[in-house]
Amino acid sequence: MEKHETTRVSKALVKGVPLDGKGNGVHHESPPLGNTKPRPAEAPVRGLLFLSALVSVMTTIGIVLVLATEAVSFFKTVSVFDFLTGTKWTPLFEPKSFGIMPLLAGTLLVALGASLVAIPIGLASAIYLSEYSSHRVRSWVKPVLEVLAGVPTVVYGYFALTFITPILRRVFPEMSIFNAASASIAMGIMILPMVSSLSEDAMRAVPRSLREAAYALGSTRYEVASRVVVPAAASGITASFILAVSRAIGETMIVAIAAGATPKLTLNPLESIQTMTAYIVQVSLGDAPYGTIEYKTIFAVGLLLFLMTLGMNILGQWVTRRYREVYR
Amino acid sequence: MMANTSDRFILQTRNLNLWYGERKALANINIDIQPQRVTAIIGPSGCGKSTLLRCFNRMNELLPGIRIEGQVLYNGEDLYGSNVDVTEVRYRIGMVFQKPTPFPKSIFENVAFGPRIHGLTENLAERVERSLQQAALWDEVKDRLHHNALGLSGGQQQRLCIARALALEPEVLLMDEPTSALDPVAAGKVEELIVNLKKRYTIVIVTHNLQQGARVADTTAFLLGGELVEIGPTSEMYTRPRDNRTEAYITGRFG
């Protein structure tokens, strides 16, 4: 009681509220609301934050605009139909031909190969981390996987060229030095952490109560993982696959180093190919004069690449939303 | 006397102690569960009711840092014996949880889950129908067996989970506050079901709804602070409790 009284008095003194002699502050004349000035920092901070957000939005719009205008000017010379269905890509030498199919095939071949490596291993390690590993094991495996995600892609590129290719050539002597298979494997390792970590997040989001229900029916750990957890996390797992494939389609350095520079319409991974990204690198580094048709090809290719990865990302988000189960 | 106790009781604990890390959750529990009866475990929150229930199907093992001493006997056999397969234990002793836990699968696949993993796929459709009938859900779902179970109401979901447990024809059904997440009407249906099921199954139910305990249970056990205070026929327990802590709890003086 004594203490309570003292605090009330001291609070009243601090606020400058008059006392009524009994130690109670007199409050009936508090100032009306809306009279306080906004504190000075608020408006500029808000503006600065908004501008920062605006930078990335404007950049995106700018990129799309540049891609689109240059591509439109390209499509004045080459019809969209010829571009999309042509099977010969020789823009840099005569006779010039602008069929994207060989580059598209190269891109998809490497992305497919990378998925064949990353999806099974990524899913298996996600199941291990989420359902089997002890806390102690997870606490050192996860950081290792994250290190894998942090390796610069150029390192994967020469890892493919100087390590994977020689090993593969011992098995397949007819294989080219630059080939789709090595690039696929390196890229698969690169996107592996993405698959495993996103899939693991999706599995860990499955409520413990569902696992308990499955165990209570006499399930083994594997049955719980394969029949309950993975199906319940299917949307998140699928999204992780799509995002990883999208990343593989857009990845540049590994394929520019290890996959070759020969646009070829083939599904043979032992051959040298060229992907869309690697072609853009080749022309950007070369001396295609500004304004020429070969210069403009990189925008057409870039636009298609952008549309593909955008489509994959939208698909990924749609899958997540469409199949998300409702848990309480 | 000691020799034939295991014939009369389907589940028994002998000096059962359990620790969560450093915290002791069960202290020296000796409890005997009669077959084909409903036994209710009552007590205030945190008294160890659910923990005790989860010792009967070894669910506690899923939590890290658990230590168990003493014995749990099932038809006289040690449930925790080194030659006992835990999946076999849970096959014979089913469980229904506080919140409905339907799998994100069809109604049919939910009920078929247990039979499928235990290889009981002969006459599966009949087994599913029988289980749903026993759980008093068949008439409500027979026309949409292949719809997702998450589309059912909470009460229906809980009866589905009961059907899912019954599909393995367990000897014992453990129920951990099975109606506490349901509205009164749905809870009433589940209660009615429990009374009907005891003809075929042994039921152990944890509840903190004393009226529910009084309505469904033949035998009631009162737990307090991890100790078994007393166990006896429900009617005696509610009218003439032997221990004054039981009396205090039942008359609502704490808990």
What does this structure look like?
The complex is a heterodimer of chains A (328) and B (255). Chain A is mostly helical and 328 residues long. Chain A is built from 13 helices and no strands. In chain A, helix 4 (101-132) packs parallel to helix 7 (180-204) and helix 12 (276-285) packs antiparallel against helix 13. Chain A starts with a helix and ends in a 5-residue tail after the last helix. Chain B has helices at residues 2-8, 49-55, 86-92, 107-117, 124-134, 138-141, 154-166, 184-197, 210-216, 234-239, 244-250, and strands at residues 11-20, 23-29, 32-33, 38-42, 66-74, 77-78, 93-96, 172-176, 202-206, 219-224, 227-233. Chain B is built from eleven helices and eleven strands. Helices cover 37% and strands 24% of the residues of chain B. With 255 residues, chain B is of the alpha/beta class.
CA radius of gyration of chain A is 30 Å
Unreliably modeled segments of chain A:
1-14
Task: Give the CATH topology of the largest domain in chain A.
Answer: MetI-like fold
The percent of residues in helical segments of chain B reads: 25-40%
Number of helices of chain A: 13
What is the name of the CATH architecture of the largest domain in chain A?
Answer: Orthogonal Bundle
- The figure for the number of domains of chain A is 2
Main sheet makeup of chain B = 6 strands, mixed
Strand order of the largest sheet of chain B: 7-8-9-4-10-11
Distance, first to last CA of chain B: 36 Å
Largest interface: A-B, 22 and 26 residues
Q: List the secondary-structure elements of chain B in sequence, H or E.
A: HEEEEHEEHEHHHHEHEHEEHH
> What is the CATH class designation of the largest domain in chain A?
Mainly Alpha
Mean pLDDT of chain A: 87
* Secondary structure tally: strands of chain A: 0
Query: Beta-strand level of the residues of chain A, as a percent range?
Result: under 5%
CATH-level-4 superfamily name of the largest domain in chain A: MetI-like
Our measurement of the CA-to-CA distance between the termini of chain A, rounded to an integer number of angstroms, reads 46 Å
